[in-house]
Amino acid sequence: MGIELGLTPDGRWNATFDEYLDAARAAGFTTVGVGANRADDRAAEALAARGLHCHEVLALSVHRDEAATEAQAHELAAAAARVGAPWVLAIFNTKLRAESLALAVRCAAILNEAGARFAMEFGPGGAGVGSIPQAIEVVDAMGGPTKAGVMIDTWHFSHGPSTFDDLATIPLDHVAYVQFDDAPPWEGDDFQAETMNRRAWPGDGVLELDRFADTLRGRGWEGVVSAEVLNAEHAQLPIDEYCRQAFTTLARYWT
């Protein structure tokens, strides 16, 4: 399939769903992420009308309330089926232990029944899964890459314990897709503020993005690379301008 450039939405955008899709398509994207609240039958029609598809539905939170987590998995499975999304993004908001892993395995099975897979996003600021090795452990517990995959976000990769050796050795069939972004030097010690409000366009920060892209491409990896530039100021831009910037800066590394 080669490398396909996608876009992950920011819920703070002041744009309608149609405006989002029009801007993404005009910028050059061929695939987009869709929030669960948007993933209805009309969304499927809107995507098809523009020749777009959806690579991810956002997002499943695995937490201590098992009944609520499983209920959310059912809702997201139905949403993914409606828009034809192959992946449901998932994060751990509880510690990785036997009970939470078993819950995640059950959630993956729910998604699988609907034709989607569990995209395990690791993050060093979260409660449970903070690195590529831990994410691989979760995926393997679910039955491997036919059931789940590791979603690698460059921000989380760069600010946690994962290493370039991890990136160079993760089985390629375990990589669900990539979310790509940059970051300036930290201003303080507020993890949530940094990750949600201060990401940068690729190339405008200090992350080793060339090395990241070269490592995966050098291994022959192919798949979706989705721009996810969460930035409080960028989120206020007109949606067409945001999408143009996101596509142009992403394409420098992957085309």
Description:
With 255 residues, this protein is of the alpha/beta class. It contains ten helices and eight strands. The protein has helices at 17-27, 41-49, 66-83, 98-113, 132-141, 154-158, 164-169, 191-197, 209-218, 239-254; strands spanning 3-7, 31-35, 53-62, 87-92, 117-121, 148-153, 175-180, 223-227. Strands 1-2-3-4-5-6-7-8 form an eight-stranded parallel barrel, surrounded by six helices. The chain is globular and about 45 Å long.
- Tally of DSSP helical segments: 10
Global shape: globular
How helical, in percent, are the residues?
A: 40-55%
Distance between the termini: 13 Å
The pLDDT mean sits at: 96
Which stretches of 5+ consecutive residues score pLDDT under 50? none
Q: Can you name the CATH architecture?
A: Alpha-Beta Barrel
